[in-house]
Amino acid sequence: MKVVVDLNQCDLHGLCVEAAPEVFEIGDDGALHVLNETPEQGLRAKVDKAVRECPTGAISIEE
Amino acid sequence: MLRRIAIVGASLAGLRAAETLRARGFDGELTIIGDEPHRPYDRPPLSKQVLQGTLAPEQALFHTKDGYDALALDMRLGVRATSVDLRVRRVTLADGTWADYDRLIIATGARARTLPGIAPRAGLFVLRGLDDAIALRRELMNAPRVAIVGAGFIGLEVAASCRARGLHVTVIEALPVPLSPILAPTLCGMVAAMHRDHGVDLRTGVTVTDVIGESRVAGVALSDGSRIAADVVVVGIGVTPNTEWLEPTGLTLDNGIVCDGTGQAAPGVYAAGDVARVANRWHGDSPRIEHWTNAVEQGVHAAENALAGPGASTSFSSVPYFWSDQYDRKIQFIGLARRHDEMVIVDGSLADRRLTALFRRGDRVVACLAVNQPRALIKYRKLVAACASWEAALSGTAAS
Prior knowledge:
The structure holds 2 protein chains of 2 kinds.
Chain A: E1 2-5, H1 15-19, E2 24-26, E3 32-34, H2 44-53, E4 59-62
Antiparallel strand pairs in A: 1-4, 2-3
Chain B: E1 4-8, H1 12-23, E2 29-34, H2 49-52, H3 65-69, E3 74-77, E4 81-85, E5 90-93, E6 98-100, E7 103-106, E8 110-112, E9 124-126, H4 130-140, E10 145-149, H5 153-164, E11 168-173, H6 185-197, E12 201-204, E13 208-212, E14 219-222, E15 227-229, E16 232-235, E17 239-241, E18 257-259, E19 264-266, E20 269-271, E21 276-278, H7 292-308, E22 321-326, E23 329-335, E24 342-349, E25 354-361, E26 364-371, H8 374-385, H9 390-395
Parallel strand pairs in B: 1-2, 1-7, 2-3, 7-20, 9-16, 10-11, 10-16, 11-12, 18-21
Antiparallel strand pairs in B: 4-5, 5-6, 8-17, 13-14, 14-15, 19-20, 22-23, 23-26, 24-25, 25-26
Helix pairs in contact in B: 1-7
C-alpha cells in the first residue's frame, strides 16, 4: 500500500499520529510528515484507523 | 450466519459502521436508512466553510457517488424509520416499507433544540443539517444583521463565519461567559475577548424572551429589556437525541439510548454516535457524546461487535476529543474538564491566544486544551488517555 496525504486538506488534528505513529508525525516545522509512504501490511489496521479518523479526509491509501 | 444488517441513520456513525462491515468482509444485505434526502455528509464544515462560501454544499458529502456505490448499500434516503419490532427484527419506514435485520445499528443522531414557545418563521434558523446550511447561507447574502442565540461551539462558529462575511453579529448567551459548561472560566473569558476583538457584540447573562417579527424575524427581545434588530436569527442552544421513535420498543432511553460497553442496547441491537450512551471505560460512565470522533469510533465499534457477536465483543474505551475553528484559531480539546479541581497553562498565554492548558482532578490529569498548538495536544493526549498523574503531566513525561 501507498499512503498519500493531501497537505492542503490536512488540518493538523494529529489523530493519524495517534493511530499510526510509525507512519505519521508532526515535525518541528509544524507540518505533517509521512515517515513511511509504503508501510508494510502489518501496519494496515493502524493506517486504516488513521484514514477513517482523519476529520478532513486528507489521507488515502493507494493499493 | 448474519445475512442482513440494518443501519438507521445515514450519518457519520452510520457510514463508518457500514464501511467497517464491508471492510471486515460482511457481504450480506446492508440497508442504511436516512430521513434526509442526502447521502451521508460531513457536519463540521457546515458552520464554517459552507457558511463562509468557500465550500460548495455538495462537497460536504463524504464520498463521490462511485464511492458510495462501491459499498453496495441498500440506501433508503428521504424516508424516516418510524418503528422497530425487536421480536421479529424488522424496522418499518414512514412510506410503509420495511427492512428486516439480523443485526441493527441505530445512529439516528440528535436534532437542534429550538426556542420554547417561539413559532417558526422566515429568517429564524437552527444549524444542524445540510439543508439548514444551504438555506442559511442563502439568507446571509441579504442579511446585514445576524443575532445568534447561544454561545456554544455552533453559535460561536456561526458568529465567526458571519464576521468573515462582514455581517453585523450579536451573540446572546444566558450564562456569564461562553462555553462555561465545558471549559475553565479564564479560558471562556479568552474566547469571549477574541470574539469581541473581531467585532462581535457579545451579550452574556441575558436570555431571549421573544423573537420580534410576525411573518419574518425583525429581531429579538432580551430579558434585560433591550431589543436587538436582526434580519436573521440563528438558534444554537444544544440538541435533543432522536429516540422518540424507539419509545414503544422497551429499549432503555434516558437522554439517549443506554448501551452496555459493547454498544448493545438489546441483543443484536447496537447504537452509536450522538444518540448513544455507550458505557466508556476511560470515562467511567455512559456519557452521551456529541463529537465527530466519537461518532467514528462508536460506529466502527458497533459494527465490529455486531459481526463478532456477544462472546467475542470488545468493550468501549475512548477519551473524548473535539475541536472548533473560529477566526484564525483552532481550539482542540481532549478529555473531560467538568468538575476539574485546577487548570494550569503549561505553554503559551491567554494574551497570545495561543496556549496549552492542562486540567487536574484529584491527582490525575483529566483534560488538555490547546489553542493553535497541535503538537502539544498530541503529546498530552497520551497522558490524558493513560490517566497519568498530575506530576507526570506537568513534567511532560510519559506516565509511569
